[in-house]
Write a structure and sequence with these properties.
mainly alpha, 24 helices, 0% strand, transmembrane
């Protein structure tokens, strides 16, 4: 037995969380890896087309193939995220998910050798499907194995691993490293490395005690898992909490996505979960990274890619700041601070871009605004929406809620990716005012409607929603989810 620690952190808990967030690291790596070698990969597509058709590829066709190579990642994530509720009930679901990572990584890494852009596109789709499942499974697993007083801090590690993965991809994508015409297949195929390490480590990690007891009804195994995670021989308090949650779940029964939308009791937490996901994707963070290179160039930097990597480093650094603050300041407070800071930076960015040609010094103000925007994003809207969804729901509806929230996140990711170029062309620098207005709306929603979940058990949070009138209507609510679902659902 491990010695228990005052903080509640044991080597088994550290190993389990680290192993889980390797999936998040891989997800981030695949978000960032495709940008650096764009020109080189497009040249390879042209060479493949020339070999097949004895003619150079048309620019419109090349643009379509490249756009598909990028966007198919989000489509894969969008589709698989809706399956999180089903997959989460599989034994060792995250291990099984690695099959998609190995297959996707192999297809991308061998695309040049196979002279096939189809392999590249299919590989991106599979790695996107892997990432969609990761975005639901990892926060759920980490939330379920974490002590209540550490749940927020450990939940932030999903986002930290994700931004570190993006940063690693940016660094490895440099021309002097793997972003060369010869080594770009290795750059893309390297994504299988975290999966390989995860497969080695997972057999040493316990299953979620909540999954074992509440879903699988295996009390002795759940107790053993709790002992390993906490380092304590007496886990009766945690087991009592799970028994109460299971008792309520037996009344609730399993909740499907359809039932989640139908049942009034779930509408308030579901609305909060979805809006928080929207606040992440519609905040303008992707727009900031889109503009960053051109702004850094206008500031006179000869190698703007290094400034972009610097922004990525700030991304990671302020996620660490959020990790240490989330259990002190609370989720709601950090989210409000992040949204307000991003809104101010978006307005400053707009003014700086408008006057950029007339006042050269504005380029430096733009740089400060970029770094500030990224920092505030990682304090609140970056990490918090991912793990707070798992906190808002009890065990019964949690998988379905994670699937809906993840699906909304990936869908918005895809829409922004497809629509932002047209928005930027139509609005120019004023595009950031659109994001400032959205951020103001999200700030007001969070201030008036989002509860603080710090230091509260899953069951306490769920009970609070059962006592609180819904945001969507003020009718008399059924007293239990069993009444809400109706006799047909529980036959």
């Amino acid at each position: 037995r491990e010695p228990s620690t005052e903080s509640g952190i044991t080597s088994t808990l550290v190993l389990s969380v680290f192993t889980a967030v390797l999936g998040s690291l891989q997800c981030g790596y695949n978000i960032g890896v495709i940008n650096a070698p764009q020109k080189i990969i497009e040249q390879n597509y042209n060479a493949t087309w020339l070999a097949r058709h004895n003619a150079s590829i048309e620019l419109s066709t090349l643009t379509t193939l490249w756009s598909l190579s990028v966007a198919i990642f989000s489509i894969g994530g969008m589709i698989s995220s809706f399956l999180v509720g089903v997959v989460s009930e599989w034994k060792r679901a995250m291990i099984i998910n690695n099959a998609l990572a190995f297959l996707g990584g192999a297809l991308m890494g061998l695309a040049k050798l196979g002279c096939s852009y189809e392999m590249m596109i299919l590989g991106r789709f599979l790695i996107g499907a892997y990432s969609g499942l990761v975005s639901g499974l990892v926060p759920m697993y980490v939330g379920e194995i974490s002590p209540t007083h550490l749940r927020g801090a450990l939940g932030t590690l999903h986002q930290l691993a994700l931004v570190i993965g993006i940063l690693i991809a940016q660094v490895f994508g440099l021309d002097s490293l793997l972003g060369s015409p010869e080594l770009w297949p290795l750059l893309l195929g390297l994504t299988v490395a975290p999966s390989a390490l995860q497969l080695v480590l997972f057999p040493f990690c316990p299953e979620s005690p909540r999954y074992l007891y509440i879903i699988r009804n295996k009390e002795s195994k759940a107790k053993e898992s709790l002992k390993r995670l906490t380092g304590c021989s007496d886990v009766s308090e945690a087991l009592t909490e799970m028994k109460e949650e299971k008792r309520r779940m037996d009344m609730e029964r399993k909740v499907s996505i359809t039932q989640l939308f139908r049942c009034r009791i779930y509408r308030q937490p579901l609305l909060i979960a979805v809006v928080l996901q929207l606040s992440q994707q519609l905040s303008g963070i992707n727009a900031i990274f889109y503009y960053s290179t051109s702004i850094f160039e206008s500031a006179g930097l000869e190698q703007p890619v290094f400034a972009t990597i610097g922004a990525g480093a700030i991304n990671a650094a302020f996620t660490v700041v959020s990790l240490f603050l989330v259990e002190r300041a609370g989720r709601r407070t950090l989210h409000l601070v992040g949204l307000a800071g991003m809104m101010v930076c978006a307005v400053v960015m707009t003014a700086a871009l408008v006057y950029l040609d007339r006042v050269p010094a504005m380029s430096y103000i733009s740089m400060v605004a970029i770094f500030g925007f990224v920092a505030f994003f990682e304090i609140g809207p970056g990490p918090i929406p991912w793990f707070i969804v798992a906190e808002l729901f009890s065990q019964g509806p949690r998988p379905a809620a994670m699937a809906v929230a993840g699906g909304c996140n990936w869908t918005c990711n895809f829409i922004i990716g497809m629509a932002f170029q047209s928005m930027a062309d139509a609005c120019g620098p004023y595009v950031f005012l659109i994001f400032a207005a959205l951020l103001l709306g999200f700030f007001l929603f969070t201030y008036f409607k989002v509860p603080e979940t710090r230091g509260r058990t899953f069951d306490q949070i769920a009970a609070a929603f059962r006592r609180t009138p819904s945001l969507l209507d003020h009718e008399v609510k059924p007293s239990t989810e069993l009444d809400c679902l109706g006799p047909d659902d529980n036959a």
